[in-house]
Design a protein that fits this description.
Elements: H1 3-23, H2 30-35, H3 42-53, H4 56-69, H5 72-76, H6 81-90, H7 94-100, H8 105-112, H9 115-133, H10 136-147, E1 153-156, E2 159-162, H11 163-212, H12 215-224, H13 246-258, H14 275-288, H15 290-308, H16 313-331, H17 335-346, H18 369-381, H19 388-404, H20 406-414, H21 419-451, H22 461-485, H23 492-516, H24 522-544, H25 546-557, H26 560-571, H27 591-613, H28 620-624, H29 646-650, H30 659-690, H31 695-737, H32 743-750, H33 755-771
Antiparallel strand pairs: 1-2
């Protein structure tokens, strides 16, 4: 990078740090630190969420997945649209959660179930969240090392430091510093500003990529060059795709509904002025991600085309060599073996694959296969055959690193000076916005729902804020230590799935039925969480230790063939989407399949146990502050169902909606349901039922539906969201100056309002109101 690039990086980052420091003057209570004083408007929350939806980890994971699947699978993701539209329009879960007025999800669990569940569930969620996010510093650290071409180690004052550890620590220090400045308040302010900066930077990079690559000459030929059953363009020709296929899509549909409230809690989800503003922020969030998605799609396309296009064979050779050398230097400690691997990779010629002449590529036989086979064979030759399980594990790490760093090195080779700085600052801001949110979410849960319930006396506001800061620092240190020790053996999305499964395996019924049912009990919740945790830990152990422990054990016992036949028999009814074949390197059952099995078991257990242990229906009006428990005078008038109101009810319009709100809701419904689902999905499905399209037609279809139309919509909404965010932020600063916190909020913040105390407080106030 040149000095121009570094100026482009330093100026925006310095401005974000300044605004984080500036926000500290408005932190006057714990409520400000935890929920930004609950004075945030819809546009501030939605714009701040823009920064959280783009991160280095998510971008790397997106490229990693779509490098294997192309666009074809994305077509079937439109099956999610009716469900996501309904969830966004109705404010499913988020509206009711905001009605409870709790400041952490653990407080909700205590009100709905009991204190024991609050502590246990909060500890379980914190462990799962910390373990899952533990790789974020590692992914970010490796990205900057490979993107900036930094050495793996350097010497300072006679001491040798590992660059990986230094970069990880610097990334985490940046995130922790913003949290220390003002908690949720500083995160919302800085993330909102980052979201506003994202729009022009994303537009610049998207414009450069579209200028650099021809859709018809560069992109479509590469995407069409796939064997039958593994198409990158034709969604009707993907039956042989493994790991990321229609079964994964089915799991996603289930989790979209079942886990809508699983990560809900403090921060953004409790920062709005009212439940209605929170609901509208969620609706606007559905508009904000158009440009993000275009950016992610084009970055994935860049990697696919650079690695496989005829015109870029020389660049592909340089990129693959660069990745292999850096990965080998990081992972292989033996000098002789490392040099053998590097020399073997460099000796390989540039690819001479001609699209349309040579055999099409596949997941098992592609232009990366020769590189990976060379590395694998060199590793096995360089070690004693008795250590083959350990060498398989080493190769698995190399293969994961090969694909996860392909985006960083590809962009370094592709972008010119100036654009390198734009991409770098975009990644820095994306990293910080995602890291600080996940870090503070874990810290809030641990503080509010694990530590404070055990205190006999409440903390002072100053002590409370400092406790949150120190816990945040502790979580950040744990992230760095965990990233230093954790070996990445699987796809990033698979890793997240298996780690979050500890919590997500059993929490879905607990949260959904806790908000929407009267029969759910603490016994059912404990059963669901404990069974989900136990099954998930078993799955994690098997997956993480398959190559070096589980498979060698099966081999010693002579059970490999029998276990293989058993797995194949179980998966045969679901073939070709679920195929379990014995493999010495990777577990035959992937993370999504384990996840689906566990979710089904825990859902059944929750319902059955709750039905048997429910003695009386739960009072939902009391928890949601409705009826006689509505002490704040909020407008909670319900509109009755009728033929005239059925469409308004369907898209979530209530008496709280202004004319502008109704316009937003109808516009969202028209674009998302009428256009995206009925016209460009359902109509296309019907058309292909009678007259199937060729791959070239599908290429043009994706150009229009994934880039051109969403690009126009994204340009309009970016300007709209930025203007709305600026107006909301000015109003937020004015409201913060006059912020007052009531007695109930003080109790809820400290975590010392018990269920009985809270009910007594509300009932007494309701009685006084009725007497008047």
């Amino acid at each position: 990078m040149t000095w121009i690039d570094w100026i482009i990086v330093i100026v925006p980052v310095a401005f974000v740090i300044f605004m984080g420091c500036y926000s500290n003057r408005y932190v006057r209570s714990v409520a400000d630190f935890l929920t930004a004083g609950r004075v945030c408007g819809r546009y501030v929350i939605a714009t701040a969420g823009t920064a959280g939806t783009l991160s280095i980890v998510l971008l790397t994971s997106y490229v990693e997945v779509h490098y294997k699947t192309g666009f074809a699978l994305a077509f079937w993701q439109s099956l999610l649209l009716p469900l996501t539209i309904l969830i966004s329009l109705t404010g499913f879960c988020s509206y009711r959660y905001r009605e409870t007025k709790v400041m952490s999800f653990g407080q909700f669990l205590e009100i709905r179930y009991n204190r024991s569940l609050r502590v246990f569930a909060s500890a379980l969620r914190s462990c799962s969240e910390v373990l899952a996010n533990m790789i974020t510093p590692a992914i970010a650290g490796r990205f900057f090392i490979y993107f900036l071409d930094l050495p793996h180690q350097f010497t300072l004052w006679g001491v040798t430091f590992q660059t990986f550890h230094v970069v990880m620590a610097a990334c985490m220090l940046f995130a922790v510093s913003l949290i220390w400045m003002g908690g949720t308040l500083s995160l919302i302010i800085t993330d909102s500003l980052q979201g506003m900066l994202f729009y022009p930077t994303l537009a610049l990079i998207v414009g450069f990529i579209l200028w650099k690559f021809s859709w018809s000459d560069d992109i479509i030929p590469v995407m069409m060059d796939r064997v039958k059953g593994e198409s990158f363009l034709n969604p009707y020709d993907i039956e042989n795709l493994r790991d990321f296929n229609l079964f994964m899509l089915g799991v996603s549909i289930c989790t979209t509904f079942l886990h809508r409230a699983s990560w809900i809690g403090g921060g953004y989800s409790a920062a709005a002025k009212s439940p209605h503003e929170q609901k509208m922020a969620g609706l606007l969030a559905s508009w904000r991600n158009g440009l993000n998605l275009i950016f992610q799609i084009l970055v994935a396309v860049v990697v696919i085309v650079l690695f496989n296009g005829n015109r870029f064979a020389d660049e592909a050779k340089g990129i693959r060599d660069d990745i292999s050398v850096k990965a080998a230097s990081e992972l292989i400690k033996d000098d002789t073996l490392r040099n053998e691997v590097i020399s073997g990779v460099k000796a390989m010629p540039r690819h001479t694959h001609v699209i349309g002449v040579d055999r099409p590529l596949s997941q098992s036989d592609n232009l990366d296969t020769a590189y990976l086979d060379t590395v694998h064979n060199s590793i096995l030759r360089g070690k004693d055959s008795r250590n083959a399980p350990m060498e398989n594990s080493l190769f698995q790490q190399f293969r994961s690193l090969f694909y996860q760093t392909s985006m960083a090195i590809s962009m370094r080779h592709l972008l010119p000076s100036g654009m390198l700085g734009v991409f770098c600052v975009l990644m820095i801001l994306a990293m910080v916005s995602s890291d600080d949110s996940s870090l503070f979410s874990s810290a809030m849960t641990i503080t509010q729902d694990v530590i404070l319930p055990f205190r006999k006396t409440p903390l002072s506001p100053k002590q409370h804020i400092w406790l949150l800061r120190w816990v945040s620092l502790g979580v950040g240190c744990f992230f760095v230590l965990g990233s230093s020790c954790m070996a990445q053996l699987d796809y990033i999305s698979m890793f997240y799935t298996i780690m979050t499964m500890i919590w997500l395996g059993g929490c879905g019924p607990v949260m959904i039925f806790g908000l929407y049912s009267r029969f759910g009990t603490a016994a059912g919740a404990f059963t669901s969480l404990l069974s989900g945790m136990t099954l998930s830990l078993s799955g994690i152990f098997i997956q993480r230790n398959w190559a070096d422990v589980v498979y060698p054990f099966l081999s010693r016992m002579g059970w490999v063939n029998g276990a293989g036949r058993f797995l194949e028999a179980l998966s045969r009814p679901f073939s070709p989407y679920v195929v379990w074949k014995m493999n010495p390197v990777k577990c035959p059952v992937n993370s999504y399949e384990i996840y689906a099995i566990i979710m089904l078991i825990t859902l059944i257990l929750y319902v059955v146990v709750s039905k048997f242990t429910c003695k009386e229906p739960f009072n939902m009006d009391r928890m949601l502050h409705r009826g006689i428990y509505n002490l704040d005078g909020e407008n909670k008038t319900r509109e009755r169902w009728s033929w005239r109101s059925i469409w308004r009810k369907f898209i979530g319009i209530t008496p709280e909606y202004t004319k502008g709100d109704r316009g937003i809701a109808w516009a969202f419904f028209g674009y998302s349901f009428v256009y995206k689902f009925l016209l460009i999905f359902l109509a296309v499905v019907i058309w292909n039922r009678f007259s199937p399209w060729c791959a070239a037609w599908w290429g043009n279809y994706f150009l229009v539906t994934l880039l051109i139309i969403p690009g126009i919509v994204a340009a309009i909404t970016s300007v709209w969201m930025t203007i709305g965010g600026i107006i909301n932020m000015r109003q937020m600063f004015r409201d913060l100056k006059n912020r007052r916190i009531n007695d109930l909020d003080n109790g809820m913040v400290s975590g010392h309002v018990s269920l009985a105390d809270k009910r007594e407080m509300e009932a007494a106030e309701a009685a006084r109101k009725n007497a008047k």
